[in-house]
Write a structure and sequence with these properties.
It is a single chain. This protein is mainly α. The chain has a two-stranded antiparallel ribbon with strand order 1-2. Strand 1 and strand 2 form a beta hairpin. The model has no long low-confidence stretch (mean pLDDT 89).
């Protein structure tokens, strides 16, 4: 068998392939970063199955199982692109979590304190970003589709991960967003923009949210945009109990992903068991 050496040009070809496959920008960045790590591990030497297995072992000792699996998925995708199917490896086995850690679950009360704190600091944009994500369940990357035109219609068409879905804007949020846009002189296009008119970057939103933690009395580990999406999922599911509908709303391809969003905490599970009263 001929020597298989991963060349830098292969990464450029792989990037074009991912773009042609209409992968989202963040996925492409993640895959290229992870494949770059694999290439550095190979060090320009010929690659065989033992090389890949050794890399997998390094990942398993350096990352969480889910983190290692995401990197293995990127590497396998790259190897398949090259036609080296025989070098692909299995992902690490991960035991499904039954409960979500309480120290990571953002509560409704903490969510409200974040909003109050943002408004107290006169950061109306951040307050509305927090409320928009939490009341719609959209991803932070999808905020770019929240435009004046869409809000007036009361629904936002978002495109993410090669799929399109409609996200509804509740009446009170519509009023708040349109009033904000009017005061900021935003007559059309994206609402959440910088002073120069550029769509605000997710990293800026992350930093601004983290800055609220101490004053809002919320643990920093709980404060990040995606946790607002989880809070939306839990509240929606507590009312509707339709996980298939929730999966559609969140844009999930698999209900198994949605199940992670609606996991209860250990304390909540204990309370429910106590209410069963099955002990004589």
């Amino acid at each position: 068998m001929e020597n298989r050496v991963v060349l830098a040009s292969y990464l450029e070809d792989f990037e074009r392939y991912l773009i042609e496959q209409e992968r989202c920008v963040n996925t492409i960045k993640k895959y290229l970063h992870d494949v770059g790590d694999f290439m550095r591990f190979c060090g320009g030497e010929a690659v065989d199955k033992m090389t890949v297995i050794a890399y997998k072992e390094r990942l398993s000792s350096s990352y969480t199982p889910s983190g290692a699996n995401s990197m293995i998925a990127a590497m396998n995708s790259f190897l398949k692109f090259l036609g080296w199917y025989d070098l692909c490896v299995k992902q690490l086995k991960v035991q499904r979590e039954v409960y979500t850690p309480e120290e990571k679950e953002l509560t409704r009360a903490e969510y409200m304190r974040l909003i109050v704190c943002a408004e107290k600091n006169k950061n109306e944009r951040l307050s509305l970003i927090i409320q928009t994500i939490c009341s719609t369940g959209m991803r932070v990357s999808e905020l770019q589709f929240v435009s004046v035109e869409a809000v007036k219609k009361g629904e936002v068409c978002v495109a993410c991960k090669g799929k399109r879905r409609t996200v509804f804007i509740v009446r009170e949020l519509r009023k708040k967003l349109l009033s904000y846009a009017q005061r900021r002189g935003i007559r059309s296009g994206a609402i959440f923009v910088t002073s120069r008119g550029h769509v605000i970057h997710r990293s800026s939103i992350w930093r601004e949210m983290k800055a609220l933690c101490r004053e809002a009395r919320v643990m920093p580990e709980k404060v990040f945009p995606h946790n607002l999406r989880h809070l939306f999922a839990r509240v929606f599911y507590s009312i509707d109990k339709d996980i298939a509908k929730l999966a559609d709303i969140l844009g999930h391809s698999s209900i198994n992903t949605t199940r992670i969003y609606v996991m209860t905490t250990c304390a909540e599970h204990r309370r429910r068991m106590e209410c069963m009263r099955l002990i004589m």
